[in-house]
Every structure is written in structure tokens, then in C-alpha cells.
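Table S2 (continued). Query chain:
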Amino acid sequence: MIVVASILSPLEDLLRHVLNWLHSSVGLPWAWAIVALTLIVRVILVPLTVRQIHSMQNLQRHAPQMKEIQRKYKGDKKRQNEELMKFYRENQINPAASCLPLLAQFPVFIALYFVLRNFAKHVPGHPDLSWLGFVPDISKNANTHWSGYVLIAVYAGSQIASTLFMSTTMDKMQRNLLLILPLVFITFVIRFPTGLVIYWVTTNLWTVGQGLVIRRLVPKTPAPSVSFRRSSRTPPREEPDAGDGAKPEAPSPKPAPAAQRQVRRVKRKKKKRARR
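Corresponding output:
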């Protein structure tokens, strides 16, 4: 923990200076300064968020081809991973890009934890560290007051809601993982300072609003057509294709011409008259 604190000490000092500026210059209370700090961090991470959205759409666009590779090499996991990595390089797909905003926030999260851990000692005088009238002290752990448990419930709900709003462009496995993570994190988050929970709730609410904007502005990924473009790593299909890429249709049986039917009937009538 000491090594992590020493590595993140520059970021810790930066966050402390930003909080002091928001409180002294802008005039925000300390709790609302944390909310404003969260919004500043999310604005800085907008380029990574855009890359995340494009990466998710790219994964959905090439999902049928990746499923074919997984089906072909399902008995050999090592070969399957090798072929998938080659397919990612050929189509310029970066699966890790969908996790970049979340990974970029972890250093900020940990640095803010160190800032709030002894926050009252670094603030001169007797600062008002309450929030919205029901959180008595944002520097105390969330499990020391009933309001902390309310914030933990809001945190879990906002985390699930943010994941569901991003599910339109998110991979199914990643979505299920992010739906389970809030339940796992509760055992750790409840021991964090309440101000840190406020930070995470705010960033989740930002993600929910971001999901609403994406649904309105970003077009949905079109469903892949039957004749999608193949790469050198895409295994051949089992169905035989015609020259234009469409499946050959079975020829339908042609009905007998009406003229032949009439000729046959006339010949039968002539034979009957001759016998008479």
C-alpha cells in the first residue's frame, strides 16, 4: 500500500489542489467539490469513451466471423486464441479499448481514497464535511452511519443501470461481468470514505446520461448480411455458394405443356372410333 501511495502521490497532490480550488475559489462545499471533480474527470475521459463505443461497435460488426473461428477451433483453445488474435490484427480490432475508461478511473479512485483518508487533518479550521443534510462527514467510512448504506445501495443500482444503458454496444460477456462486479465491490466500497462513494455514484450517473445520449445520437450497428467480407483467417462456410454469393436454389419441376395433353387426348379418341 505504501508503494502504491508513493507512485500516486503526484496524482494525489493534484486532486487535493483541485478540491481546494473548487472550494476556495469557486465556493463549492467540500462534498459538492467532489461531485464537480468527478465531472471534470469524466470530461477528460471523453476521448477514451468515444474509442470505447467504436470498439464495441466494431466487435459487434465482426461477431459472426469470430463465432465461425471459435466454432472451427473449439477443440483447440490455443489455436483458437491464436487465430482470433490474428483476426483482430487484420481487422484492426482492439478488445481492450472497451475497458479503457474504467481502467483510467482506477488511479483517480485510489488517489482520491488517500486524499479523503486523512482529509480533516489537511483542511484548516473546522470544515463542514456534511452532504445534503444526511451524510455527517464525507471523510468517514460509509459503514459508520446509516446514510453510508443508502449510498452503497444507490451505488449498486447506478452501476447496474450504467451497464444496462451501455449494453446496446457492449459485448455480452463484458456486460454480464459488469453486472456482477457491483455486488463483489460492495464488500470493499462499504469500508471506503463516504466521499469516495459519492465520487463513484456521480460517475455512474454520468454513464447513465451518456447511455441516453448514445441511444439517441449514435446509430445502431447494422446486422451483418449473409455475404459479409471475409479475411484470410475466416474459415470457409459449409454451404456451397453460387457465383454471386447467393445459395443455389433447387430447380422446381416444370409442368407438362398443355398442348401435349391435348394431343394425347385426341389420339385416344381416334383409336376408339376406329375400333367401332
